[in-house]
Design goal:
The protein is built from one helix and two strands. A two-stranded antiparallel ribbon has the order 1-2. It has a domain of about 45 residues. The longest helix is centred in the N-terminal third of the chain and has 15 residues. It is α+β, with helices and mostly antiparallel strands.
Length: about 60
């Protein structure tokens, strides 16, 4: 599995664990777009996720 595919899988698990469908600013899980365009995601110049900033967005749940 390529690094970006692993990142997408990890972010999808995070989304599901943190009640992503209830977030104020949704838009994750769009498989047709780059992870770098997802709300609150910052990537480096090679397209790898560097930061997740989704505070105050109605997250809930347990993150392992």
């Amino acid at each position: 599995m390529f690094a970006i595919e692993k990142e997408r899988a990890t972010l999808t698990m995070f989304y599901n664990a943190a009640n992503g469908s209830g977030w104020s600013s949704n838009g994750w899980l769009d498989t047709g777009t780059s992870l770098c365009t997802w709300y609150g995601i910052t990537c480096d110049s090679t397209g790898n996720v560097q930061e997740i900033n989704i505070q105050n967005d109605n997250l809930s749940g347990t993150i392992s």
